[in-house]
Design goal:
This protein is an alpha+beta fold. The protein has eight helices and five strands; from the N terminus they run αββαβαααααββα. Helices cover 48% and strands 14% of the residues.
């Protein structure tokens, strides 16, 4: 036992010498400014005091896991009950060839009030996000196919392309390196969000629940006179 402990301590000392505090990788800080969510697709009651800002993309396997296995339970407990709402932001990664166009397709569906229907379809069909399947999905979801195709082709001055790029710019400014990335915070009087929690990756339901409960308490404290 003594030998094992000695080796363990020795290993920790060696790690400490090879990785001094100044060079260790730390989690990116919370945004110092309140975060706007204008134009984001909203799930839940926009009047709630707590927001979850989710940077995600439709081809990312971890995002798919979150969408299929985590969000339904969070929907039931928080978004459907008015405790919080979800604001979806795009961060298509360059390593995923169909992610950018799928993001644009979601926004085109959103123009016809079908963003979340497309969102759910895309995460159920992550290997079928080529242009042909996106157009077939639009038909299956009851969208105006011609209007959707025109929007996706970029005839509207590249509006959807630019909207997705604006989300990407925000993600990069926040130091996001991968998806999904979760920002939880308290909604301020002007509609922006003061971020109080940041989570990365396909976090378990319980971890997201705990973070949301802390954020709800922070919102109550603010309403009760806290800063």
């Amino acid at each position: 036992m003594v030998i094992v402990v000695t080796l363990t301590v020795g290993s920790l000392v060696l790690w400490d010498r090879l990785n001094p505090p100044s060079t260790r990788r730390s989690a990116p800080p919370l945004p110092s400014e309140w975060v706007g969510i204008e134009g984001a697709a909203i799930r839940g009651d926009r009047a709630a005091d707590v927001a979850v800002i989710l940077f995600s993309e439709f081809q990312c396997p971890f995002c798919g896991t979150s969408a299929r296995d985590v969000l339904p339970e969070i929907d039931r407990q928080y978004f459907d009950t008015g405790k919080a709402f979800l604001a979806f932001r795009h961060y298509p990664l360059a390593i995923h060839a169909n992610a950018q166009k799928a993001a644009e397709a979601a926004e085109c569906a959103g123009n016809q009030m079908k963003f979340w229907e497309f969102h759910d379809w895309a995460f159920q069909h992550q290997k079928e996000l080529d242009l042909k399947n996106l157009e077939l999905a639009a038909k299956s979801l009851g969208l105006d196919a011609a209007r959707f195709a025109t929007c996706l082709a970029g005839d509207a001055a590249g509006e959807m392309t630019n909207k997705v790029k604006m989300d990407v710019t925000s993600a990069e400014a926040f130091g996001i390196a991968g998806t999904p990335a979760w920002f939880l915070g308290v909604v301020q009087g002007d509609g922006r969000v003061k971020v109080t929690e940041r989570l990365q990756g396909a976090v378990p339901v319980i971890e997201l629940q705990k973070a949301l409960d802390r954020t709800i308490e922070a919102a109550r404290a603010q309403v009760g006179g806290g800063s």
